[in-house]
Amino acid sequence: MAQDDEKSIDQLNEEADIAADYLEGLLDIADYEGDIEMGIRNNRPTVQIVADDDTDIKHLIGRNGEVVDALQQLTRLAVQQKTGERSHLIVDVDGFLKRKRQHLRDIALDAVDAVKESGEPYDLKPMNSFERKVVHDVVREEGLKSRSHGEEPHRYVTVYLRNKSEDSEDAEDFDQE
């Protein structure tokens, strides 16, 4: 399937089902209690692990989301193994990604304010592709531009004012991750 082809709702639901089964198996192995909620958001299958016991669930998030990121990568591989196609599945644990998006939004808005006040470009700390994408989206919504620079794992976003000529054009000068 070409990258530009959109998957059908049935395909996205199938990916979510495969992911849910895989994650339930992992939870059983780890002896963690948790419920799995599935859905589709922005044409991507989503699976969230929720639990009553905050102690166990925090272990599934890890420091700075490292465990949930690893769970997502493993789950995507499990889905790809079953379907034969790459998945853009999102795995969340106890609303961690929602809280992370809000934090990144705040960081991006602070950078936008700094650029508007000084007129100078503003560099953010290195981020992963998910984080950079959130920042690029917020910066664009605020009418400024952004670009990613550097090499992984030190890739970072710089926020800029738009030039006068860019205001009249509908150009997108940012690096869509």
UniProtKB/TrEMBL annotation:
Listed PROSITE patterns: R3H
Pfam families, per the entry: R3H (PF01424)
R3H domain boundaries: 98-163
Signal sequence extent: none
GO MF annotations, alphabetized: RNA binding
InterPro entries: KH_dom-like_a/b (IPR015946), KhpB (IPR039247), R3H_dom (IPR001374), R3H_dom_sf (IPR036867), R3H_KhpB (IPR034079)
Name of the protein: Single-stranded nucleic acid binding R3H domain protein
Organism: Bifidobacterium saguini DSM 23967
